[in-house]
Each structure stands twice: as structure tokens, then as C-alpha cells.
Amino acid sequence: MAKAWEINNPAQQQARDFVYGEWSKPQDTAGLKALLPRAREALDTLRKAGDWLSVRKLALGNLTHTAGLAKRLQVIQRQRESEDLRNETRNLRQLTDELSQLHREAVAFVRQGKEQTP
Predict the structure, then answer these.
(1) What gap in Å lies between CA 3 and CA 10, rounded to an integer?
(2) Do 11 and 44 meet the contact criterion of CB atoms below 8 Å apart?
(3) Of the candidates 96, 1, 11, 97, which has an alpha carbon nearest to the alpha carbon of residue 47?
(4) What residues have CB less than 8 Å from 111, skipping those under 6 apart?
(5) Residues 9 and 45: beta-carbon distance below 8 Å
């Protein structure tokens, strides 16, 4: 397990810092949308480094963010319909789809990493 936690290069360290820092904190919709490209980059970097432990942390953050988006969507659905709310709903659903794709990829990598760890 200690070997799986080793840092192989500075890019991996930066990706890990992002995952355990910013990505692990609750985000509003705008913040999450802004961070999603960095989360995608972190996933790619961590996969290349074989760092499935940090990818697991990213996946846990994804679950937290998805729950936050679902809560916001529930609040919107209780409000009186307007063009702004329809746009926000559309944006939330798109963001949820992107986050779900990121999560599926992260979980697949974590499963693969766990299987290879003695």
C-alpha cells in the first residue's frame, strides 16, 4: 500500500494536492463548473502515475458534489418556473452528466488499481 502512495513526479503531486484540497471542499454550481476541467486533468495525471488512492479520493469528492447538485435541483423544482430557472436546471443537468462521466472513469480506475495491489 505504501508503494501506491508514492509520488512519481511533480505533476502527480500537484494533482493530488488539488484532489485533497480544492476538490474535496463543497462547491456551489459555478465553482464546481470552474473546477471540473482541473478535476479532469487531475484524473488523467493520476491515472498516468498509477495513483489509484488519490483517484479514489477524487471519486469520493464526486459523490459529494453530485449530492450538492441534486439538492440544488430539488430547490429549483419547488420554485415558480421562470426562464432563469429553466436555464439553471439545464446547466445543473449538464454539469451532473459531466461529473457522472468523470466519476465512472475514476471508479473504473480505482477498481483496476485495487486488483493490482498485493
Answers:
(1) 17
(2) no
(3) 11
(4) none
(5) no
What is the helix (H) or strand (E) element at residue 114, kind and residue range? helix 83-116
For residue 93, give the C-alpha cell.
Answer: 443537468
pTM of this structure? 0.87
**Tens digit of each residue's pLDDT, the chain (118 residues):** 667 788 999 999 999 999 999 999 999 999 999 999 999 999 999 999 999 999 999 999 999 999 999 999 898 888 888 888 889 999 999 999 999 999 999 999 999 877 776 5
Cβ neighbours of 106 (radius 10 Å)? 26
* Helix then strand then coil, % of the chain, to nearest 5: 85, 0, 15
